[in-house]
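user: Please supply your own:

assistant:
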Amino acid sequence: KYLDIQKLTDPQFKRLTGVSWSTYRMMIDLMYSIFIYHQQATSKLSIEDQLLLCLGYWREYRTLFHLGMTYGVSGAT
């Protein structure tokens, strides 16, 4: 989760997610602007965790069930 990885160095973060901290932050800014524009319903996960879940899915090819268990949400979420 985002709270657990904030102290990672840029090389460690890139190894974990496949993107640098600066790219991650730009993606978060974009997601916040889309979220505010569309005023979507709230989620159990923060936007930061939603992006980490997505990056984990793309990078590790984990099943949605396993990602859901890691983040405490259902596989459908």
